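Many introductory courses stop at the sequence. We go one step further.
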Amino acid sequence: MRSFKRGLCNTISRGVLAAAMAVSAAGSLVATAHATDKKFKIYLSMSYIGNDWQAEAENEIRALAASKSMRDKVELHIQVAGPNAQKQIQQINSMVQAGADAILVYPISPTALNAVVRNACARHVIVAAYDSVISEPCAYNFHIDQLQWGKNQANWLVKQLNGKGNIIMINGVPGTSVDLLRKQGELDILKNYPDIHIVAQANGMWSQAVARTELSKIIATHPWSTIDGVLMQAGCYTANSMQKEAGIADDKLLPCGGEASNGGRIQMLPVGTKVDGANGTYRPMGARRMSSGSQNFSGALALKRVVQKLEGQSIPQLTLIPQLLVTNDNAKLCQTGSWAEMKAGCNVFQPALIPNPGWFASIYSPDVPEVGVQGALTGKPEE
């Protein structure tokens, strides 16, 4: 089974890179017949939605669709399949039958949708996946290097632990390319350090609430005093909060490599940093962190590029989005969360502006200036 997963990871990576050089059937037959006063009919097919990242990504897609640059071009329809590949296949078939010009997809599987995607491409429908991957060559993909994400987090934690210790891994949504590749990246690094022991793993579904449930089960048999570090695709904020609830001092919090939640980044700031709206464990603690994640704007960027394709422009088959790595050394507090501040490099937001500590802070892209903090929070575009 392990060799199968490794082989699938390699297949996904090779397939996506190869697709970047391919010319798809959909790409060569663009819906140029649209009159200038007719909107493009674009569907969004979401899979698992029970976490903050998915909600934000949807909001940013909505914000872009409602922006001045897009509102007269795009008729957006959104459907949710849940963690069920067969339902997502049925939805995509229905979208094609309903006359979709393009379909944005968060795929629950990198391979299960290939046949339905080929059918859509054959019908001249553009299909674009964001964050998670579709390996069918005619699909467009927008994502970070998830394998490298895992390697980055594991390398950082190894250095924090000087190559030895007991760690916990909280993974993501099983079956997705994101979870599969991130885990493989982490394990590719950890296998070189025999003195680092993974004492427990669980699927956290990229949710702070699920992470708390799973960590509670693990800590019942592996107390915090026996753990030296944590790798969490989502949940470092929760892990730190649980340690505080157990009476652990700020300077004794375990190093955590994980997601880009705003709560986790606030905890990274030096003790005494003045922030507006701090409360409970949503406050500066000087917690040791490597904070990175899939960029929340990937879906909005996919929408923008798909519209450009429908208008006759050329776009790459693969858009590999740069990763933003935030550590204690470069965490920078935004005072107001304005576009200008984000452009200048701030990467963590005031709790008074972002009440939910699980909200993901990786929202800035110079390629989608239509989407800012309010876009990620409420779906309202920057105007």
